[in-house]
Design brief:
Elements lengths: L1 E4 L1 H13 L3 E6 L12 E11 L4 E3 L2 E10 L4 E4 L6
Antiparallel strand pairs: 1-5, 2-3, 3-5, 3-6, 4-5
């Protein structure tokens, strides 16, 4: 996945990549696609990330290729998790 970000964000992602830690990801579809207001389909999975070290910089914006190695099946839910 090509990703655009600042140097500070790059440093944070690089630290996560180098640590080889399991991370959780939520991919939320746009709210306009939801049948119930505020609860669009959301995909959840965990995995580790890898930065390809093929960084390109243009006008203060950095582009890297980010790879997510998924380590669980993708599950679906309505909306993002909330604290009860």
């Amino acid at each position: 996945v090509p990703v655009l970000y600042s140097e500070q964000q790059h440093d944070a992602l690089k630290a996560l990549s180098d640590a080889n830690k399991q991370l959780y990801f939520w991919v939320k579809l746009p709210d306009e696609t939801a049948t119930e207001s505020g609860k669009p389909l959301t995909f959840k999975f965990s995995g580790t990330i890898y930065l390809a070290n093929d960084t390109v910089s243009l006008n203060g914006i950095i582009q890297d290729n980010l790879t997510i190695y998924r380590d669980m099946n993708v599950s679906e839910q309505k909306g993002l998790p909330t604290v009860s």
